[in-house]
């Protein structure tokens, strides 16, 4: 009898160790963070220079994009499997707000991170002229009414997407003594801008840079 109890106890212990081994490995695996290309401090490995051809696989239609620019959007999506139009537009609206705020405040460091050389040079010259005149801007972005794709193209490995922004902005200019010399914070003015963002589709950096600004 005692011998049978010992045998059963050994079998139970063995099964318990097997169960713990399986579940333990599974739990450890599930707790591992899944790396993404947006992880802070991490960059995805460079993707192949050749475009990703999706022959015989229909690309999803770009919702909200007029047919004239849909082809460009689909070419970018075919070359960059990470591209998502909805996420791009949300990021573009965030960049629009950040660039405006940085320009109004004279924050050259932020502008340097978000703009290419030509656009940055234009902003820098305007900030310098404002500083020399002793003027400051007390502008407020009230809301972004709309953001739609104006054009999209893939030139070699460089993707360029122009976004038409419609926004309400309250603008005030003050002199060196903080006196209001132009504008009003009570009356927002509708602003229409077409900003073009670009990115090399095979770059490990997921960020798009502002490379052109025009009035809408």
TrEMBL record:
Keywords: Membrane, Transit peptide. It comes from the Bacteria. The keyword Membrane applies. One of its GO terms (biological process) is protein import into mitochondrial matrix. InterPro entries: NTF2-like_dom_sf, Tim44-like, Tim44-like_dom, UCP031890_Tim44-rel. Belongs to the Tim44 family. It is found in: Membrane. The lineage of its organism: Bacteria, Pseudomonadati, Pseudomonadota, Alphaproteobacteria, Sphingomonadales. The keyword tRNA-binding does not apply. GO terms for cellular component: membrane. Residues 69-215 form the Tim44-like domain. This is Tim44 domain-containing protein. NCBIfam families: Tim44_TimA_adap. One of its GO terms (molecular function) is protein-folding chaperone binding. It holds the Pfam family Tim44. Coiled coil: none annotated. Its main location: membrane.
């Amino acid at each position: 009898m005692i011998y049978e109890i010992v045998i059963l106890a050994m079998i139970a212990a063995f099964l318990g160790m097997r169960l713990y081994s399986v579940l333990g490995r599974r739990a450890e695996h599930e707790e591992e963070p899944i790396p993404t290309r947006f992880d802070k401090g991490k960059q995805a490995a460079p993707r192949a220079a050749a475009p990703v051809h999706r022959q015989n696989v229909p690309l999803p239609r770009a919702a909200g994009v007029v047919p004239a620019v849909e082809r460009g959007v689909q070419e970018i999506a075919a070359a960059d499997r990470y591209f998502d139009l909805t996420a791009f537009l949300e990021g573009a609206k965030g960049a629009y707000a950040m660039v405006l705020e940085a320009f109004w405040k004279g924050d050259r460091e932020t502008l340097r991170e978000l703009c290419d050389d030509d656009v940055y040079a234009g902003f820098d010259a305007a900030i310098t002229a404002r500083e020399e005149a002793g003027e400051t801007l007390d502008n407020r972005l009230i809301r972004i009414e709309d953001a739609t794709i104006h054009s999209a193209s893939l030139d070699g490995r460089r993707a360029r997407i122009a976004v038409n922004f419609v926004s309400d902005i309250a603008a005030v200019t003050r002199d060196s003594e903080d006196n209001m010399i132009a504008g009003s914070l009570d009356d927002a003015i509708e602003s229409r801008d077409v900003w073009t963002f670009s990115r090399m589709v095979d770059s490990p950096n997921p960020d798009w840079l502002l490379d052109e600004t025009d009035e809408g």
